[in-house]
Amino acid sequence: MHTPVPGSVTVQDDFQPALAGLLPFFILIAYIPMVYNMTFRIVCEKESRAKEIMRIMGMTDLPYWLSWFLFYTVINTVVTTLSWGILLTKVINYSQPGYIWLFFWLYGQAVFGQIIFLQSMFSGSKYAGIVSTILYFCGVLVDKLVAGGNITRMSKLLASLLPQVALMQGSVVFASYEGTGVGLNSSTSGVIY
To answer: The whole model's pTM is what?
Structure first.
């Protein structure tokens, strides 16, 4: 009687390349309204001089910016949880869901830092909202400069200071783990890819 030679079981998912390309695109799209609205509203307050009026009444900068941070964090948590919940239905099969939620949530919080940076460059609210949204979406182009095997790790790390680049780079790693059946979990989260 012949028995097959034992071998290791591997999983190869053909959806992995699509996931690596489409996941960051859809996450970017999900955050575009937040980028526009937050930049527009902050610059609109700058135009109406509401911050100066609050400062005259005794409010310092810390509570002002903490209120924007908390407002954004609540919205980010809702968007993250909805995106994560959608992905849990038949897209994420092998990864621990908490890691994916944390990845999206941290990305959203990094986008808030980018919003604060972008709003400081504008004085017109409509112009600020439109241009910051375009700059936000064009951040993906920086990833195209550092994508590839001949780019040094340090260049990729420096480019990942932009949240969009970090999302693109992280999504490729996540998709490769998910596509091979290993998934992102406590044993793979610390592995340098």
So the answer is: 0.83
4 domain residue, yes or no? no
- Number of alpha carbons in the 13 Å side-chain half-sphere of residue 168: 23
Domain that holds residue 168: 17-179
Handedness of CA 76, 89, 21, 9 (dihedral sign): positive
Segment 108-159, tens digit of pLDDT: 999 999 999 998 888 888 889 899 999 998 888 888 888 877 888 888 888 8
Number of domains in the chain: 1
Whether 7 maps to a domain, the answer reads: no
Within 8 A by CB and 6+ apart from 192, the residues are none
CA atoms 41, 84, 173, 193: torsion sign: positive
